[in-house]
Specification:
The protein is built from 25 helices and 31 strands. The chain is an alpha/beta fold. It has four domains: 181 residues, Medium-chain alcohol dehydrogenases, catalytic domain (Quinone Oxidoreductase, Chain A, domain 1), CATH 3.90.180; 136 residues, NAD(P)-binding Rossmann-like Domain (Rossmann fold, 3-Layer(aba) Sandwich); 122 residues, Rossmann fold; 192 residues, Dihydrodipicolinate Reductase, domain 2 (2-Layer Sandwich).
């Protein structure tokens, strides 16, 4: 399919072929017929892209702070590489479109293929032939409304939300400052609802466009503008003022104060500098309110991505309801008077050139038109059953499901240095990331979806690097096809997912490795080698992880939270060090008993050999604190690892210290282990059975946190029990569910096992 892309490096526009996105959970796949170019927002984006690195930094001081923080943590060279990579990534444009539903993901029950819809959302409703948009940002188009006008719905929702924020009743006097596209739509909505509106703009062409559509409008330079507007209202002032301009000047806000009556409301819709002069705002006791984009729900991932609707009785006008209302009002808005300039998607570069051209009668609206022929192909159906692993005869072909920041920063660079491996195919949820990363890392192909890639049978190993909620599903499918697996942590978010992975692993005999990299860290490996064999341990793993914003994707209910998604790392480190197997786990949340929302947790794990592990995970610590401290005590030995930069040992009355340049956490060693596994070698640290144990303990810890007590860790499903070397449930006398034989749990140091078979 074709998509319009912006170069973040130089601001150039291109139309590129790329795979269509996939209909993930809660999303709607739409074949666009029209999309609207938002003149103000997209012109500003183009200007930022075309500017120098210094000008980009001046416009985004928040990102500069992030870069400086990264430089302090990773060093200047690595930070420079990350910045250059970011500049090389193309960006999608657009956030208002209309078309036809061609597929829906799970969880979408109110929209069906063949339905005409309008959609919104930056990063979703883009200028592309096919887009994937969360259901709460998609609304049906009423009969009689053409697709080209339906494409105005999202920008119209911005205007409508501004009107809602005034809380002014119909018939009120409203001034609109700024007559770009949002301002023009605001005037039309105000007229349709029965308001008495007046428009103001510094551009005579914008004023003339409003007048041509039958509105009262004045140029900014009009002499005694406040008096002129007041005379239109027979000496009265505005009950509300909507500022829809975009400028770094304070003039629109100052003018709003002059146009408003006592105790009026000024609503900030556009991107303007807000510095209200005391002389008008204080003396008139004006209220300043901000209008948040398309309405309530914007910037809330629980609403936009997870599909959680707000109760209408408390939030009558959400993003989705605003979109639907604009579509209902379309017949009353006279959108034809906007005379939009329509370009074929192939001519998008010309459309943006026109957007940046100053003309006496520049049109406020530009549309992109799509042929409506793009398709999403169905992947060949997998016949079912399981294939057996066979090692590659020559170069190992490695594919990737997902190619986000972690993969491109911590995995691909190390993997590319290994001999005897090559990159096969890559896929990502929206396609754009896969296209860009395939060029950067040399993947031979970009797969339309994970299913298409797996069906191509062109990989000896597949790396599952997607969001957490898809790990278990993809991992099991990779193994069923007899393909070696690398799965980033966690392996699964539920015991059922782990059961499916374990069953597929047992049947395939394929090498499997989970992304628990800390057991590969030089400091951890040296510590383990220094511990006396079979001695019960006391392990304390303290983590100052730092606070995540409340809207971080970790806190999406489907993603399992920080406990399942990150604390599993530290569970695995303890499991790797301790000789025995886990028997029970207790979890306490400092801030929540909900495993998804908890930021800070403390775990206590007991083992079959009397070892214990305490994991203290601080999720609200301040930036700058050292992240990880691992301390181990046993008979005659004490040890401390500080942020993987040093290992201090006290043994036989002597103290020794090892330093590690770069504080390696094991990512490079982990990728080296993966290549060795693909060559048929045995790697003790690459024990997939241990990874399944760690994932199971994390699941039980989540249950313990929710229940507020201690939970056993014995596997309760047959394939998982067999893979972990425990008696399967229901296998005979003395094998009650929840009771794990010590002999099965005990794993002597130096005999962790190897990946490459089921371990049953």
């Amino acid at each position: 399919m074709k998509a319009v892309l912006l170069s973040a490096r130089d601001g150039s526009i291109s139309v590129e072929e790329m795979p269509p996105p996939v209909a993930q959970w809660g999303t709607v796949l739409i074949r666009n017929t029209y999309s609207l170019i938002s003149a103000g927002t997209e012109r500003a984006t183009l200007e930022t892209g075309a500017g120098s690195l210094l000008s980009k930094a001046r416009q985004r001081p928040d990102q500069v702070r992030q870069v400086l923080d990264t430089a302090r943590q990773l060093g200047v060279v690595e930070t420079y590489r990350m910045v250059q990579d970011r500049l090389d990534r193309p960006m999608t444009l657009g956030y208002s479109c209309a078309g036809v539903v061609i597929a829906v993901g799970e969880g979408v029950d109110d929209l069906t293929p063949g339905l005409r819809v309008a959609a919104g959302g930056a990063g979703y409703a883009s200028h592309a032939e096919i887009v994937a948009v969360p259901r709460n940002l998609v609304v049906p188009v009423p009969d009689g409304v053409e697709d080209r006008w339906a494409a105005f719905a999202t920008v119209g929702a911005i205007a409508l939300q501004g009107i809602h924020q005034t809380e002014a009743p119909a018939g009120s006097r409203v001034a609109v400052i700024g007559l770009g596209l949002v301002g023009q739509l605001t005037l039309r909505l105000l007229r349709a609802y029965g308001y008495d509106a007046v428009g103001v703009d510094q551009d005579p062409a914008a004023v003339e466009a409003a007048r041509a559509a039958g509105f009262v409008a004045h140029p900014r330079e009009t002499e005694d503008l406040p008096g002129t507007v007041a005379r239109h209202w027979r000496g009265a002032r505005a009950d509300a003022v909507l500022v829809t301009a975009a400028t770094s000047s304070t003039d629109p806000v100052e003018l709003a104060g002059s146009l408003a009556r006592d105790r009026a409301t000024v609503v900030i819709v556009g991107d303007v500098k807000v510095a209200p002069p005391r002389s008008s705002y204080y003396h008139k006791e004006l209220t300043v309110r901000y209008s948040r984009s398309y309405g309530p729900g914007r910037y809330d991932p629980r609403y936009e991505e997870a599909g959680q609707e707000y109760p209408e009785g408390y939030v009558p006008w959400t993003e989705r309801r605003n979109l639907a209302e604009v579509l209902r009002m379309v017949p009353s808005l006279d959108l034809e008077s906007l005379d939009p300039h329509v370009f074929a998607v192939e001519d998008a570069a010309e459309a943006y050139r026109v957007l940046n051209t100053v003309r006496p009668r520049r049109r406020p609206a530009l549309l992109l038109r799509y042929p409506g022929t793009a398709k999403v192909s169905e992947p060949p159906r997998h016949q079912g059953g399981s294939a057996r692993w066979s090692p590659p005869a020559a170069e190992a072909r490695i594919a990737a499901i997902g190619a986000g920041n972690f993969a491109t920063k911590m995995l691909f660079p190390h993997l590319r240095r290994e001999q005897g491996v090559g990159f096969s195919w890559v896929t990502s949820a929206r396609g754009l990331t896969a296209v860009q990363q395939s060029k950067r890392w040399g993947f031979r192909d970009v797969a339309e979806s994970a299913e298409h890639g797996l069906a191509a049978a062109d990989a000896d190993c597949v790396m599952v690097l997607s969001r957490h909620d898809s790990h278990g599903r993809y991992a099991a499918e990779v193994l069923r096809r007899g393909i070696a697996l690398y799965c980033e942590k966690p392996v699964g978010l539920s015991e059922q997912e782990l059961e499916e992975v374990a069953a597929a692993w047992a049947r395939s005999g394929a090498p499997a490795l989970a992304g628990f990299n800390r057991r590969f860290a030089p400091a951890v490996r040296e510590l383990r080698a220094a511990l006396p064999e079979g001695a019960p341990l006391q392990v304390v793993h303290r983590v100052f992880a730092g606070r995540l914003p409340d809207d971080h994707w970790y806190f999406d209910d489907r993603q399992g939270g920080r406990l399942l998604g990150e604390v599993c790392h530290f569970i695995d480190t303890a499991n790797f060090l301790v000789p025995g197997g886990p028997v029970s786990v207790t979890a306490t949340g400092v801030d929540s008993r909900d495993p998804v929302s908890a930021q800070s947790v403390t775990l206590q794990i007991t083992y079959s050999d009397a070892s214990t592990a305490s994991i203290v995970y601080g999720g609200t610590t301040p930036p700058g604190a050292p992240k990880e401290l691992i301390e181990v005590a046993c008979d005659g030995v004490a040890a401390r690892i500080e942020d993987f930069a040093s290992l201090t040992l006290w043994k036989r009355g002597k103290k020794s210290e090892s330093l590690y340049r770069g504080a390696p956490k094991g990512h490079a060693e982990e990728m080296r282990a993966l290549t060795r596994l693909l060559r048929g070698e045995k790697v003790a640290e690459a024990d997939f059975r241990l990874a399944l144990w760690s994932s199971l303990v994390a699941c039980r810890a989540a249950a313990a946190l929710a229940e507020g007590g201690q939970v056993g860790t014995a596997p309760a499903t047959p394939a998982l029990a067999e893979a972990l070397g425990c008696t399967p449930p229901g296998a005979g006398a003395g094998s009650a569910v929840g009771v794990v034989p010590e002999q099965a749990l005990a794993t002597p140091q130096g005999a962790v096992g190897t990946t490459g078979n089921s371990g049953a």
